[in-house]
């Protein structure tokens, strides 16, 4: 049983794979956290209660004078604001009396088969026989707030999902100022904080620093999860590396403003709170109404950060991604963006498609610029009508021609945006997201549509459906190229305007749900100026996401390495682009560009008609390699071997099949050195199996390859790389 309740000691113990988690209800009805970490066997864990250091500066709850107890130092499951715990709160509710003091007490709980769902929001899902749910009901008698703390366990995975659902069971409205998805307290602070920061074209760079006595925040206020911070953090033991040591991963299934905050207090305990960013957030809950937080996923590994990543990869690939494509090998596509930018017509696209078909590429994606009168980025967003001056004969005829060449056809949209120079804006200027009385800020000559409004979503559903139904479309790239400003919907009453950011995200999810259900055969790819919304929630709607607008293979090493911290290779969209690269101007060999892109959902992003015959031969080779290796890459176990964040001269990763009979090793030399020495120790192999290394290479046992490694000491040039296929004999 993954969820145990010891009714005498009032202790809950949750066991998920190698992960145990425990808390109890104390005599005051508070939920006191006891344990989070590697699997343990006992349930009598009350002895783990954190010592209660008392002074007059640590208040006792009302009626607690006789029994020394303070929330100020207690480890808690879901700490509340303003009632004696001065650390970061998980929840703050403002009642009608204007006070934000919140006090929740345990009332009851249920343990049931199956995994809870969060209506209208993405969440991990499972069949009833694969999962269990613990639902703890807490209540605040003054405001009438009932808070359901939900815990989901899929026994096979060392991960626990969490969310909170708040219901107003009282007779007056109240306002939620903060409602975290999860909080975890540790009775120690000897951790490093690992997170992913970045910017446009440089997403998900790994940062690792020790925690200290302070509050840290990884957050977004941009209305999307953002290029700048990813909704992920890990706490790693001091000696934890990729393969050894404890790692606690925290990932939020949310695409909007989020915050993952850590606080180490004077007693050397650590609190991590994650959820919707409380800044610019408030939610009015009328009597009878409910509010659900997004879902948080906590993963534990005693096999280092690599083990944590593999848990996220498999969980998200199998239990978060949905639809026909989630476990299918993704088609090799060619996208015309970097090939033509806005300068294309049907003949140019057909010329690229002809070469693509000849080379074995499977799909042509027509990017930005096919609609309205859009020939640059200054107009027409919102006018989702084919520009027949550009695509003479219209979309259906173009798609037919492409299909006749044996290629599938994909198309680009940026649904959430509106250009001031668009018919949509001229007829609905009020659909722009903007605070009443203010002028909207502009970015890339575009405004954001108010996705909180159902009429906006209905318009988008109809306009997009009209295109998707008009031709044989197999793929949609869903772009989002700016962040939100003046986010206070005019459609909401003033006292609800701080709900706008979250309502925007809910509106987006509802539109995505409608479209992905209406077009189940279409493969959706998420995108936001590259990887500005690369988060687990988007994976629920689109099993792959454009990773970055930086397509330089050497830059991509870091970006993809960082992205792999949480996201499965099958979700990491990666293309071979032109050299010199358009973003960095760097020259990189065709082989290396292919080897780096081979680690994800593979494709091309260049003008195939301009390739030399040698390059075309290399495309054919890469296409064949992709067909041979994609099952291994997309469904295998992923191991990071050599970090480009720690080494200038080498970067390596590998994929291993579930039966450990096959592996694919990628090694890249971003910058070479004189007398280059490298012994690359592999991982994840069966120590006793013998593997042939490369087609004509030596046969070595798994333990040799993992402990002694491969000798890669040779003369390498900047940007060289190696792709090695290992097969057990
Ligand atoms: C940003 C995307 O990341 C690019 O791939 C491309 O689709 C452009 N937008 C088009 O405007």
What does this protein look like?
It contains 12 helices and 38 strands. The two termini are about 40 Å apart. Strand 31 and strand 32 form a beta hairpin. Helix 6 (about 455-470) runs parallel beside helix 7, helix 9 (about 555-565) packs parallel to helix 10 and helix 10 (about 590-595) packs parallel to helix 11. The protein has 3 domains: about 60-70 and about 80-320, Beta-galactosidase, Chain A, domain 5; about 335-420 and about 460-480 and about 520-635, TIM Barrel (Alpha-Beta Barrel), CATH 3.20.20; about 640-729, Sandwich (Immunoglobulin-like). By secondary structure, it is α+β, with helices and mostly antiparallel strands. The chain is globular. The mean pLDDT is about 95. The longest helix is centred in the C-terminal third of the chain and has 23 residues, at about 615-635. The site of (2R,3S,4R,5S)-2-(hydroxymethyl)piperidine-3,4,5-triol (DGJ) has 11 residues, from loops. (2R,3S,4R,5S)-2-(hydroxymethyl)piperidine-3,4,5-triol (DGJ) binds near residues 412, 527 and 530.
Topology record:
Elements lengths: L2 E4 L4 E6 L2 E7 L5 E8 L52 E4 L10 E9 L17 E10 L4 E10 L4 E10 L5 E13 L4 E9 L2 E9 L4 E5 L9 E9 L9 E7 L4 E7 L5 E7 L6 E3 L4 E3 L2 E7 L2 H16 L13 E3 L1 H4 L5 H14 L3 E4 L27 H11 L3 E6 L3 E2 L4 H5 L19 E2 L5 H17 L4 E4 L21 H19 L4 E4 L9 H6 L2 E3 L6 H11 L8 E6 L12 H8 L3 E5 L7 H23 L1 E6 L8 E6 L5 E8 L9 E2 L9 E4 L5 E3 H6 L2 E2 L8 E9 L1
Parallel strand pairs: 21-22, 21-30, 22-23, 23-26, 26-27, 27-28, 28-29, 29-30
Antiparallel strand pairs: 1-2, 2-3, 3-4, 5-10, 6-7, 7-8, 8-9, 9-19, 9-20, 10-17, 10-18, 11-12, 11-14, 13-16, 14-15, 15-20, 16-17, 24-25, 31-32, 32-33, 33-38, 34-37, 35-36, 35-38
Helix pairs in contact: 6-7, 9-10, 10-11
Bound molecules: (2R,3S,4R,5S)-2-(hydroxymethyl)piperidine-3,4,5-triol.
The site of (2R,3S,4R,5S)-2-(hydroxymethyl)piperidine-3,4,5-triol (DGJ) has 11 residues, from loops.
